């Protein structure tokens, strides 16, 4: 799986591709890229999942 775009180095373009694993109800992740903080979190509430990305300016 690839999270960065080889055509746009330095994380100017990237992919957020969460995997909603059974048994996990909450996940938070972050990465300090050269262009700023990239965060992704998701929360499961029953059959509903809320994804909250934070992207650099």
Highlighted features:
single chain; 57 residues; mainly beta; three-stranded antiparallel beta sheet; 3 strands
Strand element count = 3
Number of alpha- plus pi-helical segments: 0
Instruction: State the low-pLDDT regions, or none.
Output: none
**Helix/strand order:** EEE
Beta-strand level of the residues, as a percent range? 35-45%
Mean pLDDT: 86
What's the N-to-C terminus distance? 25 Å
Side by side, the strands of the main sheet go: 1-2-3
Main beta sheet: strand number and arrangement? 3 strands, antiparallel
Radius of gyration, whole Å: 13 Å
Structural classification: mainly beta
Global outline:
elongated
Percent in helix = under 10%
Domain Alpha-L-rhamnosidase C-terminal: 6-56
Organism: Bacteroides zhangwenhongii
Pfam families: Bac_rhamnosid_C
Protein name: Alpha-L-rhamnosidase C-terminal domain-containing protein
Structure explained in plain terms:
It is a single chain. With 57 residues, the protein is mainly beta. The protein has no helices and 3 strands. A 3-stranded antiparallel β-sheet has the order 1-2-3, with no helix packed on it. The model has no long low-confidence stretch (mean pLDDT 86).
Furnish the topology, listing elements before pairings.
Blueprint: E1 26-33, E2 36-45, E3 48-54
Antiparallel strand pairs: 1-2, 2-3
A few lines on this structure:
By secondary structure, this protein is mostly beta strands.
